[in-house]
Amino acid sequence: MLNRIVVGDLASAASELRNVLSDLRLRLLRMEVASRALQDGPKNAHNAPMYGPYLGRAYLETACTALLARMDPFRVLAAKRHQEASYYAFESRSKSGIQWSGDIVSPDKPTSQMWAINTRENGCRSLFGPWTNEVIWIPAFERLGDAVANSTVVHAWVSDLSNKQPEGFCAELRSSLEGLFSKFSKGVHSELLANQHAVFDSVSIESDFHSVAQRLTCFALLSHFSDHFLYRLSADKALDIANRIGSFWK
User: Fold this and answer.
1) Neighbours of 149 (CB within 10 A)
2) How many domains does the chain fold into?
3) 181, 211 in Cβ contact below 8 A?
4) Residues 150/241, Cβ–Cβ less than 8 Å
5) Which candidate, 169, 156, 216, places its Cα nearest to that of 5?
6) CA-to-CA distance for 193 and 60, rounded, in angstroms?
7) Do the Cβ atoms of 228 and 135 come closer than 8 Å?
8) CB contact set of 192 (below 8 Å; sequence gap of 6+)
9) Rounded CA gap, 35 and 55, in Å?
10) pLDDT tens, residue by residue, 57-90
11) Owning domain of residue 76
12) What is the pLDDT of residue 118?
């Protein structure tokens, strides 16, 4: 269900972007199946340190790319078109590709003048950053709060989310995702040379997967309460999916 709330309502869509999102959703679905298999009892415990970081980072990057595609389709389609071009070199690092630092998380911090002309050139359009907090995520929090107040059935976690202080909570979620990305990356790049089996054992991997799912669900739910995102679900549908996702967290 998380893959659905991330990519949105594609039923009536017919476009290049829709095809991209459909492909991303399929990847998310397959990774969800793989992650459940990885956590399936003691028989796979020895695989968690090896494959857990790959799945965790890949899922996080793929879900964030899908959210970015719904928020800034030109950025994602431009990257796709470049990859389809005859001159694209798969063997070389490409600056046109979606980057975690820059496209997903802003590496830049605003000065005291957040909307000064020089700050709008760098980092301003990242999925998670100070600028998108102001324009997108904080207003979405306010609209979510109104929807929750008018809804008859809301899971406790959704109600708690709508009561958070949006400024600090968005920054907290973003920081948590950055930390999880960094942790997974240490396993992907074999950077971690000590205590790998303790850091990425089956219990830790399950906890990290749970944290990723919770935080992505928060942002995915908020995306359906912002006019800046395409393929939005109705408020009732988005809340229903979020309620059902929350029921698995008990």
Assistant:
1) 10
2) 1
3) no
4) no
5) 216
6) 23
7) yes
8) 186, 199, 200
9) 7
10) 999 999 999 999 999 999 999 999 999 998 888 8
11) 2-249
12) 63
